[in-house]
């Protein structure tokens, strides 16, 4: 039996039906999924938990509050981690995303 893991990235311009990928190894299914809003992210977390996913990572646009909201909405059935930028790189990260 393989483990099911997903990564979610968020941008209002994504087309979640088209923009997704799946990468398999003998022991893990890794899914890369997209959402357009926090509401879609919460709904997707519930769906993934219903489908037997055990772990989820989300992009930095989510932050801790939304990651916790997704965890709770999914009935705590999957872990939800979120990417953070090291403090010494925050300024460079903001320049990139805001340019």
Look up the CATH topology: Rossmann fold
Please report the number of helical segments.
Answer: 3
Order of helices and strands: EEEHEHEH
Q: Can you give the mean pLDDT?
A: 94
Distance between the termini: 44 Å
The rough form would be described as: globular
Looking at the overall shape, the CATH architecture is: 3-Layer(aba) Sandwich
The percent of residues in helical segments reads 25-40%
Strand content: 25-35%
Low-confidence stretches: none
| CATH class call | Alpha Beta
Task: Please give the domain count.
Answer: 1
- How do the strands line up in the largest sheet? 2-3-1-4-5
Largest sheet: 5 strands, mixed
How much is the radius of gyration in Å? 14 Å
Total E-strand runs: 5
**Secondary-structure content class:** alpha/beta
Q: What this model shows, in words?
A:
Strands 2-3-1-4-5 form a 5-stranded mixed β-sheet. By secondary structure, it is of the alpha/beta class. Helix 2 links the parallel strand 4 and strand 5. It is built from 3 helices and 5 strands; from the N terminus they run E-E-E-H-E-H-E-H. Helices cover 33% and strands 28% of the residues. It has one domain: Rossmann fold (3-Layer(aba) Sandwich), CATH 3.40.50.
């Amino acid at each position: 039996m393989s483990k099911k893991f997903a990564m979610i990235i968020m941008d209002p311009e994504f087309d979640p039906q088209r923009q997704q990928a799946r990468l398999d190894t003998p022991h893990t299914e890794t899914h890369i999924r997209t959402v357009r809003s926090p509401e879609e992210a919460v709904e997707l977390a519930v769906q993934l938990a219903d489908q037997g996913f055990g772990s989820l990572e989300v992009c930095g646009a989510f932050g801790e509050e939304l990651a916790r909201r997704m965890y709770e909405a999914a009935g705590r059935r999957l872990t939800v981690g979120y990417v953070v930028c090291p403090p010494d790189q925050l300024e460079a990260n903001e320049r990139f995303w805001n340019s």
